[in-house]
Amino acid sequence: MDGRRGLVMTRVDGNDLLTALARNPFLLGTVARVLAVRQAELHDIVAPPGLPALSDALRDRITVAGPLPDDLRRRSLQLLDTLDGGDRLCHGDLHPGNLVGPPRAPTVIDWAGATRGPPVADVARTQLLLREGVVPDEAPPMIRMLAPRLRGLLAARHLNLTRRRRPIDVHLFERWTVVWAAARLAEDVEPEHPAMLRRVRAWSA
């Protein structure tokens, strides 16, 4: 337009599912189910070849993660090198806050971190966020109050539903979780640093 490149986007009306859950905690089962279904639908798609490989994106993040000690950085990169890549569409940041619209049929938003990779890796990222992610300050007070209790229930339900649709190799899941924890330290979410470092250290011990 007027000689400038742009990106045409569709407006999505409604609240995200994190807000919906804050207003009605009894939606937890619905949110977990929809999260699992939407994620599985994405993993059925062969990613466009123009998307970066997940392993390359994680390697870049781990390399520049300031809070990660050099010995843990080295071990995390070595672990990443043992993991096979994949060709499926991975969102890279799928959680209730990135599902917007009606609770039973939301739209997936925030695609900046999309990559080509294995489904188990994308599930590991979602589980890490559900279990360890810090609730943002702008989140509704009810969510901040209920988060300690809800996060474990939501994560467990999501993982159980995901396994019903596609088997998950436990050992691969654990390895991808460690790699994601190391990479998460590059995102500068300081309140999460202790939890992420504990996960990496526990694997490297």
Protein described:
The strands form two sheets. This protein has a two-stranded antiparallel sheet with strand order 1-4. Strands 2-3 form a two-stranded antiparallel ribbon. The protein has 205 residues and is mainly alpha-helical. The protein has helices at 17-23, 28-43, 54-64, 70-81, 119-132, 141-165, 170-184, 193-204, and strands spanning 88-90, 99-100, 107-108, 115-117. It has eight helices and four strands, in the order H-H-H-H-E-E-E-E-H-H-H-H. The model has no long low-confidence stretch (mean pLDDT 93). Strand 2 and strand 3 form a beta hairpin.
Strand-pairing-aware structural class:
mainly alpha
Strand count, sense and barrel status of the largest sheet are: 2 strands, antiparallel
- Could you say which overall geometry the principal axes of the C-alpha atoms support? globular
Number of strands: 4
Q: In percent, how helical is the residue content?
A: 40-55%
Radius of gyration: 17 Å
* Biggest sheet: strand arrangement: 1-4
Number of helices: 8
Spatial gap, N to C terminus = 55 Å
Estimate what percentage of residues fall within beta strands.
under 5%
Q: Let me know the average pLDDT.
A: 93
Order of helices and strands: HHHHEEEEHHHH
Low-confidence stretches: none
